[in-house]
Design a protein that fits this description.
- This protein has 132 residues and is an alpha+beta fold.
- The protein is built from two helices and five strands, in the order αβββαββ.
- A hairpin with a 5-residue loop joins β4 and β5.
- The longest helix is centred in the middle third of the chain and has 19 residues.
- The model has no long low-confidence stretch (mean pLDDT 85).
Length: 132
């Protein structure tokens, strides 16, 4: 899929389009999206989905160039801590003291200049684990 129009779009539009693209991909892979852009005072989670009995918190990263850090590499310890804190807020709000099994995935979209400007999608399941 070509995204040449994204070069002219605002960062918010580009980010939302990337999240929608990833959500469609995840649905085709059998996940059920239950929330998008969940916000708490600690941060935001791009997508929350169900995969069987598990709840999946998904961070979407979009990179125009792989020259620097990849989308996967850009989810550093600090970002992981914010995602974990936000996920805890979601779990408390929606499940109280009985949360389902959870995992954190990172989906990275990167420009593939060798493929006419189309995007490559990388999905890292269980990208990191909370330290409790």
């Amino acid at each position: 899929m070509k995204f040449s129009w994204l070069k002219k779009a605002s960062p918010e539009t580009v980010g939302k389009s990337a999240e929608n693209y990833v959500a469609r991909h995840l649905k085709r892979e059998g996940l059920t999206i239950v929330a998008s852009n969940y916000r708490s005072r600690r941060g935001e989670i791009d997508l929350i989905a169900r995969a069987g009995d598990s709840l999946v918190f998904i961070e979407v990263r979009l990179r125009n160039h792989r020259q620097f850090a990849s989308g996967m590499e850009s989810v550093d310890r600090r970002k992981q801590e914010r995602l974990i804190a936000t996920a805890n807020a979601y779990l408390q709000e929606n499940y109280g003291n009985n949360p389902p099994p959870c995992r954190f995935d990172v989906v990275s979209l990167a420009t593939n200049r060798d493929n006419g400007g189309q995007y490559d999608l990388e999905w890292l399941r269980d990208a990191f684990r909370p330290e409790f």
